[in-house]
Amino acid sequence: MINVAVCGANGKMGQEVIKAVNNAEDMALVARIDIKDGEFATIKDAKNSVKIDILIDFTQPKSIYENALYCLNNGINIVIGTTGLSDEQISELKSLSESQKLGCFIAPNFSTGAVLMMKFAQMASKYFDNAEIIELHHNQKKDAPSGTAVKTALMMSEENPDFTKGNCAEVETIEGARGAKSYNNIHIHSVRLPGYIASQEVIFGAGGQLLTIRHDSMNRECYMDGVLRAVRYVNENRRFVYGLDKIM
Ligand SMILES: NC(=O)c1ccc[n+]([C@@H]2O[C@H](COP(=O)([O-])OP(=O)(O)OC[C@H]3O[C@@H](n4cnc5c(N)ncnc54)[C@H](O)[C@@H]3O)[C@@H](O)[C@H]2O)c1
Question: In Å, what is the CA distance from 18 to each residue of 173, 195, 223?
Fold first, then answer.
């Protein structure tokens, strides 16, 4: 049995993670940690009362670095879904995880389908010189384009040095009509509408053919398969991993 603690237990993701851990036959939920009305208010309180093998953190950007440092300095493996770690912080956590021989799994996107969509888009980029990304989210999302769209473009750009080839000279009569130009000329279009959760299409075009790779998140359950995979991976491999794609 893997003893799992959930930090951010009362949040939207935390609640879904608790359901998933409770349904996993090889895991036992040993602590629900949340600064607001948690069974334990801090990781330290929980550690003083129960044995934690792995802590899953879905809290907030301003807490995650301290939480991860605490875990790695106190013998607790950690799976991090919380976004907002800087590149410097990620490399500090990598060094600490290696020196302490503890697992630290960080994934900005735990949805297996979204990760596969990115990988498939990367594969297709070898064979197409024209592709555009359309990401579609609910209208309460503050940032645009989405981190997933940016990461997709980055992965595609690793396979192809220049996209949007052969287009005629373009004039935008309304600014922004052609979207944002990202890595290697890949255009990204951001749609914000109530009704969407998180979707993305990558459309490839070539003479006489179109290839569309699309992923839709219907609800937060889509992240749970990835979170549980990460817990199991860290339980068997006490090492640092950045990105769910590394274990798929
Ligand atoms: N990696 C992924 O696939 C993925 C998917 C969705 C969301 N996220 C990220 O997960 C995080 C949480 O998202 P959410 O929608 O559940 O947020 P939320 O605001 O609904 O929940 C956060 C919870 O964490 C608690 N909390 C905050 N600081 C804490 C601390 N120091 N110790 C203990 N508890 C603390 C809050 O009280 C709250 O209950 C965000 O950073 C979000 O971007 C990641």
Answer: 50, 26, 12
Which residue has a Cα nearest atom 33 of ligand 1? 34
The model's pTM: 0.87
- Same domain for 88 and 150, yes or no, is no
Range of the domain at 136: 112-217
What average pLDDT does the segment 2-23 reach?
97
Q: What is the pLDDT of residue 142?
A: 80
Query: Do residues 82 and 120 share a domain?
Result: no
Q: In this model, does residue 83 exceed pLDDT 90?
A: no
CATH code of the domain containing 154: 3.30.360.10
Which among 60, 63, 217, 242 is the best mutation to test ligand 1's pocket, defined by most ligand atoms within 8 Å of the CB? 60
Q: Is 225 found in the same domain as 190?
A: no
Q: For the chain, how many structural domains are there in total? A: 2
Predicted confidence (pLDDT) per residue in 183-237, tens digit: 999 999 999 999 999 999 999 999 999 999 999 999 999 999 999 999 999 999 9
Q: Are 103 and 54 in contact (CB under 8 A)?
A: yes
The answer to whether the peptide bond before residue 145 is cis (omega within 30 degrees of 0) is yes
Whichever domain contains 233, its CATH number is 3.40.50.720
Residue with the bigger pLDDT between 146 and 28: it is 28
Question: Could you tell me the distance, in angstroms and rounded to a whole number, from the CA of residue 241 to the centre of ligand 1?
Answer: 20
Instruction: Report which ligand 1 atom has the smallest distance to the Cα of 109.
Output: 3
Q: In what order do the strands lie in the sheet with 104-106?
A: 27-33, 2-7, 54-57, 77-80, 104-106, 240-242
Residues 100 and 174 placed together within one structural domain of the fold: no
